């Protein structure tokens, strides 16, 4: 059994329901493996720094006039369609990837530049899964009924809401658990995004969903992610059962 890190042990802890929220406590407990496990509200220096970096990423709007944003778009195209030249940053070709129009920058408004970073991370880290979802190789059922890229932007936004990282005080256990995972791996958010995408696609196909049901599928995806993040043996994103869907 893995030894709990030192930061779990602090004064003024309580064990029970989310009634602790807003009570000025330092730590709170919830049951894992039959025992009360402490989750601290006060962050370690490493957690604070990594959370600060992640928040900075979340606040960056996509700006099509910025060179590094343009290069990220080109990199996404290259990773998505290797060997196929992109004619222009504004092109009908983008519709092949599931953007709503010729200019993908208009679809980033909801989640910002981090949603492009998430797609690029997925494409480079789990290229097989990315290509399977993008091109629906071996797919079945309602395989073309959600636009891949726009779905990716919505997944980023859903995770941002689920983790509630902008809150002054933690309002969910999921947020506290994620911050511990972030201290283990700076790319925890991006990894969680990849897991969320394959979970969403799996649920989509199992339900034979239509585009009108996209929000319902996204909600059920969030429920599944929250359930797995709070499982007894899940201490890293890689421990989540649905992580095994990635390849």
What descriptive keywords fit this protein?
three-stranded mixed β-sheet; disordered N terminus; single chain; mainly alpha; 8 helices; about 45% helix; 3 strands; about 250 residues
What does this structure look like?
- By secondary structure, this protein is mainly alpha-helical.
- It is 46% helix and 6% strand.
- It has a 3-stranded mixed β-sheet with strand order 1-2-3, with helices on one face.
- A hairpin with a 2-residue loop joins strand 2 and strand 3.
- This is ELMO domain-containing protein.
How do the SSEs run, as a string of H and E? EEEHHHHHHHH
Percent of residues in beta strands?
5-15%
Quickly give the structural class.
Answer: mainly alpha
Shape descriptor reads: globular
Low-confidence stretches: 1-26
Mean pLDDT: 83
Oligomerization state? single chain
Give the helix proportion (percent range): 40-55%
Strand order of the largest sheet: 1-2-3
Tally of strands: 3
Question: What is the terminal-to-terminal distance?
Answer: 28 Å
Number of helices: 8
Rg value: 19 Å
The biggest beta sheet reads:
3 strands, mixed
């Amino acid at each position: 059994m893995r030894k709990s890190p030192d930061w779990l042990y602090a004064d003024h802890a309580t064990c029970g329901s989310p009634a602790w929220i807003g009570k000025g406590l330092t730590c709170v407990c919830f049951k894992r493996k039959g025992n009360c496990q402490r989750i601290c509200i006060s962050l370690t220096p490493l957690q604070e720094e990594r959370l600060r970096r992640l928040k900075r990423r979340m606040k960056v709007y996509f700006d099509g006039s910025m060179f590094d944003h343009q290069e990220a778009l080109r990199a996404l195209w290259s990773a998505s369609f290797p060997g196929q030249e992109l004619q222009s940053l504004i092109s009908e070709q983008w519709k092949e990837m599931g953007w709503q129009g010729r200019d993908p920058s208009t679809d980033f408004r909801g989640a910002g530049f981090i949603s492009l970073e998430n797609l690029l991370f997925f494409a480079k880290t789990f290229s097989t899964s990315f290509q399977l979802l993008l091109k629906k190789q071996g797919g079945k059922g309602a395989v073309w009924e959600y636009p891949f890229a726009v779905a990716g932007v919505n997944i980023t936004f859903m995770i941002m809401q689920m983790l509630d990282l902008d809150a002054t005080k933690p309002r969910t256990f999921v947020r506290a658990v994620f911050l511990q995972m972030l201290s283990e791996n700076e790319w925890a958010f991006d990894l969680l995004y990849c897991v969320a995408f394959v979970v969403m696609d799996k649920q989509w196909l199992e339900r034979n969903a239509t585009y009108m049901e996209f929000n319902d599928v996204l909600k059920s995806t969030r429920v599944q992610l929250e359930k797995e993040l709070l499982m007894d043996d899940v201490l890293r994103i890689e421990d989540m059962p649905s992580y095994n869907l990635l390849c």
